Amino acid sequence: MEISLSEVTAIFTLHVARAARDTNGEGAISLGQVQVVNLADTARHANPARRNKAIDSLREVVHCLSRPPTFVPYRNSGLTRLLQPALAFGVVRLLGTGKDLEEAETQATLRFCREARQVLTVPQAHHIAADSEEGAWGAALAALSSCDEAPDDTDLADDLASEQESSKPALNEGGEKLLSKVKMKKMTVRAVMGVSMMVTFGGIIYLGHVYLCMLVFLLQCFIFSELVGVRKRQAAERRLPLFRSIQWAWFFVASFFTWSASICEFVENSPRFVASWPTARLILEKNMMVSFSLYTMLLMVSVLSLRKGLYKYQITQYTWTVLTICIVVFQTQAVFHLIYAGLFWFVLPSSLVICNDIMAYYCGQVFGKKLIRRRFLELSPNKTWEGFLGSAFFTMVFAFFFSRYLCNFKWMTCAPEEMTFSIHPLSCEPDPMYRPQSIAEIVFEVLPRLRASLGKVPQLQAFGELEICRAQLHALSLAFFASFAAPFGGFLSSAIKRAYGIKDFNNLIPGHGGMMDRFDCQFVMFLCTFVHIRTFCTAPVSVEMILANAARLSLAQKETLIRRLQDQIASAR
């Protein structure tokens, strides 16, 4: 095996010779060449031991072809999905020699690659003459050339033990500079795009509640597209007209069912919306029947679309669609309630997940595997205990102070009483939850028996005079969930990517991947917040909401309601 490294694209070229026949008798492969392009995009490739492990893993699944070079499309190739987990980093493209194989030939070759356990040639490293910094990668190439046989396991390169890492030669000064540039470029791109996303998010929050709901629905569409695309197989879908349309129809029916029920109760309180969209109001009021009718028709169309010979593929795709809808739609059905309960309950949990994600990255970079060497999670070898626990600490601190900051703005704490597309400030009397109170007052309300005990200890009495908002205590509870439970939504996302051999769900956001890569933890966080405020916080009830419900009563019921209200007012006086 020959490995050549270019300064610009870091091209690994593997020449493999093997005289063996596929066990299924479907073809023999004797000589071939594979070029893996753009392997040096991230700093983690710098470690020579990890790079060495990745090359060894690659030798077990190398795809040998013949004839002139041909382009192998990323993601649409079983070869790419097979090679990527072995490489443990993002393969942008593969360039191999050979003709464009049919599906059956490709599957036969992949079966051969899974069974190949040795390569006849020993790896040899050399420089390309065009490299300007010829000494930059010398130590890394020397480490690569020292590998004579493949490892027993084919796990990711990050699984290599620390003892093996320390036994390999380190990069020289030129190599360190080059790797530093690559790492800095990557972090700069991530930082710029991160700031851009936060500014955009803040701008949409300023526009108002309706626009924020529209943003959430748009994100749902992007994420659904990314998830269903994971299992896309173009060869089969060419024989299934409207198959993707049916999947999207399921998504829109589920979205209508979840959103319409939430929106309906607020439409009644918006005269401007009702006057402008009377048909929309009628549909929303009958949302249950409309949803059931759409579901029935879609079920019939889905069954009629089944084709002989593709039953298994179609059923598995529909099953995956249902799972995707559960992840994307039903977990976010509470978002509308959170937004209209006050932007505080939407902005805070979103910010907690973002803070936890950022601090997990930096704590892992600074302290990773220095205090606890035990692996944190098999699914994500790069995750460390230091990053997990460190991010939890910083998230709790951030939640305590950021929630107090949000309590100062009525735009965040006031619950709107109507749906409107116009941008206007909100004004209301802040709920006691958002007003500062002494710690003693909050504690005595929950545990009144402590009042006598607190007065006997001067230190506790002084501490009890400090003022906080009740919302800060709720924020700490949400921060605990965001630190220890919400990340498992991201781990599930990692499991899906690992199962299908992809690095990111999409490349829509440079340096961050796709929408699912950024919002995988937010789904369960929104659901937790909804359950929390319904359990521990009193839902605000406005006069407009009561009048909207009273308008549906008959004349006799309205008269009864008025008499009972008059009796209550008289007794209160």
Automatic annotation (TrEMBL):
GO biological process assignments: microtubule-based movement; phospholipid biosynthetic process
GO molecular function, one term: phosphatidate cytidylyltransferase activity
Catalyzed chemical reaction(s): a 1,2-diacyl-sn-glycero-3-phosphate + CTP + H(+) = a CDP-1,2-diacyl-sn-glycerol + diphosphate
Keywords for the protein's UniProt record, in alphabetical order: Lipid biosynthesis, Lipid metabolism, Membrane, Nucleotidyltransferase, Phospholipid biosynthesis, Phospholipid metabolism, Transferase, Transmembrane, Transmembrane helix
Annotated region described as Disordered, given as residue ranges: 151-171
Membrane topology: Multi-pass membrane protein
Compositional bias annotation for Acidic residues: 151-162
Pathway(s) served: Lipid metabolism; Phospholipid metabolism; CDP-diacylglycerol biosynthesis; CDP-diacylglycerol from sn-glycerol 3-phosphate: step 3/3
GO CC annotation: endoplasmic reticulum membrane
Location of the Kinesin motor domain: 10-119
UniProt-annotated location(s): Membrane
Domain of life: Eukaryota
InterPro entries for this protein: Kinesin_motor_dom, Kinesin_motor_dom_sf, P-loop_NTPase, PC_Trfase_euk
Transmembrane portions of the chain: 248-268, 288-306, 318-336, 342-363, 384-402, 473-496
Family listed: Belongs to the CDS family.
Name of the featured protein: phosphatidate cytidylyltransferase
